[in-house]
Design a protein that fits this description.
TIM Barrel; alpha/beta; globular
Length: about 450
Amino acid sequence: MSKEIRFNAFVMNCVGHMAPGLWRHPRDRSDRYVDLEHWTDLARLLERGYFDGVFLADVLGPYDVYQGRPDAAIYSGIQIPVNDPMMLVPAMAGVTEHLGFGVTCALTYEHPYSFARRASTLDHLTKGRFGWNIVSGYLNSAARNFGFEAQTEHDDRYELAEEYLEVCYKLWEQSWQTGAVRRDRKSGVFADPAKVHGINHLGTHFKVPGFNLSEPSPQRTPVLYQAGASRRGKKFAAKHAECVFVSAPTAEIVKRYVQDLRLQAAELGRESILIFSMFTVIVAPTETEAKDRVREYLSYVDHLGALVLMSGWTGVDLSAYGLDEELQATQTRANQSALESFTVADPGRRWKIREIAEFVGLGGRAPVVSGSPQIVADRLQEWVETTGVDGFNLTYAVMPETYEHIIELLVPELQKRGVYKKAYRPGTFREKLFGQGSFLPQSHPGSGYRRE
């Protein structure tokens, strides 16, 4: 039996997330990102299409690597202005019953004590549908605005992340025993103090003596996402992540990443990791209509904006290159896997700056697949079989048109083939994704902190 294909919508609380310039398209509505109805309408749409979740990206600084200043990003709306993604979750949850929420929150600039409470609160308010995309950040502009000269070294950020997760696990899993909250109206006991414990954490980066201010939420620990594809990032993901997000321009790069990650996870006794690959799907009733639609979308692409994005991701100022020069590998403190994907990850492929601008301009660092429902379904199934991924984080070209077409045309074709759900599983986000319990499984290191 073919593997079930899973979908997340990959969006951001801004204009033109992965399609620079497409906000100018007459049918695009992404400039309504400041309106709550924009997000609640999207949530209803995605749930109608049985998407597993909405994956909300975020950055905490502007893209200012290109030409050494943020002007081009501001001018073209390249992920700026950008609003807080966590604020969207309660409203979107309030109009849905099953849709999950994977939210990007950078651990580098927020103390784990306050973050743990916010995550618990959202898990309560969503009835157990909250997930956290664990990132450490890649923009020096963010570091400077939080009082640092620049980001710390790439691998050092992961060492900080290790302790950050330890503190969070203790707060979520250890500080409140099962049954601590009694809500006993007759006796007047709301919670049993003997079952609430300070975590007494004293580490290299954090000192947290107390307990989580929130009572245990439906999942205790939210579903854990991670998107690091560097050597250190894969090690971290193999240990902690339940869902992993990867983006690369070719199936061969993704395949190697998936194989390496699953091998490392298996060595740690972890088998149930879901891997999502970034894709942009442009589907139409016929192949001819799909080609026309792609041609139309491409006419709005902002190629300069694409280079602004790529410069921010890689930490390399692409304005220093000529358009017909090849991008060279170098060491930066930014997103190492983004740079490797267009330099050394595929030894048989050399990318010129002009080619990068054209590729990134529609869909970011991942492929665009277009065609009739049958052709697109074939391509997605082929990608799953070739790479071993479990599903896709689907970006949009035109909002919400891209998702409307996927739900109206592609989802029924995948359902007909028996590779896409026709109903949601009951339960929390973790239960829906894995068909098991609401809490972290015993194979996950975070479960070892749980105090029953």
